[in-house]
Amino acid sequence: MSDRDGKIWMDGQMVDWREAKIHVLSHTLHYGCGAFEGVRAYKTDKGTAIFRLQEHTDRLFNSAKILRMAIPFTKDQVNEAQRAVVRENQLESCYLRPLTWIGDKKLGVSPKGNTIHLMVAAWAWGAYLGEEGLKRGIRVKTSSYTRHHVNITMTQAKAVSNYTNSILANMEVTDEGYDEALLLDSSGFVSEGAGENIFVVKDGVIYTPDLSAGALNGITRNTIFHIAKDLGLEIVQKRITRDEVYIADEAFFTGTAAEVTPIRELDRIQLGAGSRGPITEKIQNAFFDIVNGRNPQYAHWLTLV
Ligand code: PMP
């Protein structure tokens, strides 16, 4: 990914893509304390627009707060950096990756006295779990790895270190030919995917784990709450068991990268009809209408670059 043309915003400056480097003794590289965001911009009739930019920036600052890192920029500067990166790289639809890390001034577990940095990169990135997955649904397996307990690494921070758990789970199941992993919390209840929140549909009601299961408070998850309300569908946040997923009528993953991806199978058990369910499809259509600027009710969620 490093050998390409383009610009990356680094600590307040646009830097050539190939020159956007850090030192091998950077604290975050050794101890894993850092936070990031995944954001998308979509092509709309009015131009390219970043979806829920403010919410992503707010979450980045909250993640940093949880990790006791003081980002040396204002939220407005971080918003502007994201807009600028999309413009500079002349991207129409893209994924954005802001990341904050601890510098190379000193090592040792304590980061006190070290510097805090921030970068924003952006690049074109299609459907995370495949175009086919968006239409037909994906095959998921419950991972043998447990999701972080809420009092180990902080689960409301989109922390770099939390993703070791996601990587292990994802590699475990994709090695066996599945598309993505589902993780259970330390009590055995459904938490989330390796990089997605999960929803299930049963008898016309939508269920999703409450955040005590250690799932990230997804911005797409929140978007689904709005969509469901608009569609007159009830959403319940509660503890969910894996066998409740097995007998659900429909299930889907949500995330900035994954968007709204139907799940057609869990642990080799077919969910519902084994394809994208009708409620999932309605939600997916509403989601793509919103992010692509076709629903004026949500114009305030789109920031033109
Ligand atoms: N859970 C995890 C672990 C994730 O990495 C993501 C992606 N950021 C999500 C949930 C979904 O969050 P969002 O909808 O804000 O992208």
TrEMBL record:
Question: Which GO terms of the molecular function aspect are on file?
Answer: branched-chain-amino-acid transaminase activity
* Keyword S-adenosyl-L-methionine recorded: no
- Source organism per UniProt: Limnohabitans radicicola
According to its UniProt entry, the function of this protein is described as: Acts on leucine, isoleucine and valine.
Q: What is this protein called?
A: Branched-chain-amino-acid aminotransferase
* GO cellular component terms, A-Z: cytosol
Return the PANTHER family for the record.
AMINO-ACID AMINOTRANSFERASE (PTHR42743), AMINODEOXYCHORISMATE LYASE (PTHR42743:SF11)
| Entries under InterPro entries matching the protein | Aminotrans_IV, Aminotrans_IV_CS, Aminotransferase-like, B_amino_transI, BCAT-like_C, BCAT-like_N, BCAT_family, Class-IV_PLP-Dep_Aminotrnsfr
